[in-house]
Design brief:
With 255 residues, this protein is an all-alpha fold. The chain is built from twelve helices and no strands. The protein folds into two domains: 164 residues, no CATH class; 76 residues. Bound molecules: zinc ion.
Length: 255
């Protein structure tokens, strides 16, 4: 997406969030920043959804927000929104002509007049929820199209709902903290169980190596590496319930 389109959406967002002039400048500057990286040969495609980059910048934005560091918050938000908005346009690698035509069209101020843009931003704010899960679900639904009007509308709605999530309530939902503490205790018990089981595996392995020294390398790999990996994966790595709630707790700064 080109400068003018990124800037228009960011300016509308800034108006909606009632940012000061100084803060608005930071957001408007940050939303153009990734294109400056590209000119320095930063090899990351803008027109495929950069899920990990977007999510990590949004988490940094949220953390800065909780720490009342608005400049850092707006900087990371701007970077994330740039990549998010670019992902709505077909890639120039696969669709060169369509890409150029659509990018040029998105710059047209008449494409989505001011009122339309404001309405899109309002819709985004109303449909937002302050949770990393909400953002992840929203990101997974991002898909490019050939419809310029839809691109601008979607870019504004998504940018607004994600900004609203970052700036959402600082108070964790009821019960989150307790649930997190409980699951963390259970997770720690799983780590302990995995460690003890791995030790048993190593002890068993040592015994067998002494008995069957001709297979020592094989036995070592099996009992000292393979088994512990499987054990840790089973007990610790697959504790998704904990990782989910940990992410949620981090969003509210209580992890
Ligand atoms: Zn870009």
């Amino acid at each position: 997406m080109r400068r003018r389109a990124h800037t228009r959406i960011a300016a509308e967002l800034s108006r909606k969030m009632r940012l000061s002039k100084e803060h608005e400048k930071i957001l408007l500057d940050a939303i153009l920043e990734p294109d400056r990286w590209r000119s320095r040969n930063f090899r990351v495609s803008h027109h495929y959804l950069q899920y990990d980059i977007i999510l990590s910048h949004l988490k940094m934005a949220r953390k800065a927000y909780l720490e009342n560091n608005m400049p850092s918050c707006l900087y990371h938000l701007g970077i994330a929104l740039h990549f998010l908005q670019d992902a709505l346009i077909p890639s120039p690698r696969e669709f060169r002509q369509a890409h150029d035509r659509i990018e040029a069209r998105t710059e047209d101020p008449n494409l989505l007049h001011e009122a339309g843009l404001r309405e899109a931003i309002d819709v985004g704010f109303k449909t937002s929820f302050p949770s990393p899960k909400f953002i992840e679900r929203a990101l997974l639904k991002v898909k490019w199209t050939y419809d310029e009007q839809h691109i601008i509308w979607k870019a504004a709605v998504l940018s607004a709902s994600i900004a609203a999530a970052v700036f959402g309530s600082r108070n964790p939902p009821d019960g989150l903290e307790e649930e997190y503490r409980e699951l963390k205790k259970r997770h720690n018990r799983r780590i302990l169980a995995a460690s003890l089981t791995s030790l048993l595996s190593a002890a068993g392995g040592s015994f067998l190596i002494l008995q069957f020294s001709e297979f020592s390398i094989l036995l070592f790999l099996l009992f000292f590496l393979f088994m512990p990996l499987v054990i840790f994966h089973k007990f610790v790595g697959s504790d998704f319930e904990f990782y989910d709630i940990e992410e949620e707790a981090e969003w509210y700064g209580i992890a």
